[in-house]
């Protein structure tokens, strides 16, 4: 693979880390699995991240087809995705830990379920609309089979990393404390905001070419 491809995959990986913010979600994971045995908690971590990988890869491969079905241009979706990333980023910089990714109805329904790995941990806390839109944008921007394979491998690496974090979630939460987790959440929010602005700027340049010409002038 060319060096630029590796840089794109690294950018995609960093964007997923900033968007999903697995460190910030760990307190939610710990609270939802608090009454589980260590074995059940480990299985929940595995199921959650397996579901995240499947959801993001399927979205990546089928996302463009859905856009074509509704006659939505990639650049319009890129701007909408960028606005969504900014919305999540502002909430993260405000110190919220997943409250903006899950409404009250989803929370009340999911807590009563025995298996919380898929709902709400995998979706909507991790593979939420913003993460899904990000994968669709990258896949549409680089639709070559080799690039899609690289993005899929990146998603798997990301899911494995999140799984390792969740396995050690109780220990990490005790070490960082709520203040440390809030600091990391705000940093991830700042990175995510920058990525969202990049998405919006790229989309607007194509949708409104006059803006790019004016910028050059």
From TrEMBL:
UniProt topology in membrane: Multi-pass membrane protein
Annotated transmembrane regions: 6-32, 44-67, 79-97, 118-140, 146-166, 187-208
Claim: Membrane is one of the keywords in the record: yes
UniProt subcellular location: Cell membrane
Signal sequence segment: none
Keyword Nuclease part of the UniProt annotation: no
Keywords assigned by UniProt, alphabetized: Cell membrane, Membrane, Transmembrane, Transmembrane helix
Stated family: Belongs to the UPF0056 (MarC) family.
The protein, known as: UPF0056 membrane protein
Source organism: Vibrio stylophorae
Taxonomic path: Bacteria, Pseudomonadati, Pseudomonadota, Gammaproteobacteria, Vibrionales
